[in-house]
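W.,

You were right to be curious about this one. When I first looked at the sequence I had no strong expectations either way, so I just let the prediction run and decided to look at it fresh. Below is the sequence, 272 residues in total, followed by the output.
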Amino acid sequence: MKYIKLILNNKKISKYLLTLILSVFIIGGCKVEDTDNVESSNPVNTAIVNITPEDLVGDACTIGDIIVDAELIPDGSPFTIEIIDTKSTVAGCILGSDFTIQDKVATASFVVDYVLDVVRNLRVLVKITPINGAPFQTFTDILVSPIGVSISGPDTIVVDIDPEAEGDPDPIQLVFNATGLLDKVSNAEVTLSNPGIGSVDDEMPPILPDETIRFVYSPMNTPGVQVITVSLSLVTDLVLLALCPVLSPSVDITAIVTIEQNTVEMMEEEMM
């Protein structure tokens, strides 16, 4: 029922799934060829490629649109589109089939795979065969922002421990940035490498509207090293995966912060 509701609520996905059922579905972005030094053969800019959304995120979920203004190309002229990276590796899929120029415009929808850690440069390559004309190609490059999780602040925190003191050190508020993950996954999982020297107030903290994950670590008055790992698992929707098999089925994202709970003696030894 989950996927039926998804199909019914998403006009784009339902349209392309119907195309798949009718057995005329092709993945236009799954053909690979050497384009390291490709140059546009677009005659006098007769086709201009526009991409939406402009702030594309590599979450294997967002469906973007490619709109090619082709004022001088006859309607009915076929075209193909590929999405590749700088190494000519397929980086996503074109959704749909039977691409032809209509009303002087070529349109298609697409989805790209997960992008982690760094911005990824992708190329949208459009090949058009005008009716009674010579084939030509044009392209545009797009930047896809990564998704990920990172600690807000230093990745190592030192806590002073005094074994002779009464009570434990003050709790520590930890904040992690969850970039591009809002509405993609509800909660993170927090694990401790050494639960005998500290604890957290929430082992499954939510991703907040400001794209942060917040929880409190309470160190005990015990020396040692605590490695706190924040993990998130994303699973690609089965409908999109059926439409675009080059998408990764899932991805795990992690970030860590290290808490060093040192006594005065330990700190003096480290300084010697």
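Here's what jumped out at me. The chain has two domains: 2-144, 148-271. And, maybe more interesting for your project: The longest strand covers residues 250-263.

Coffee later to discuss?

I.
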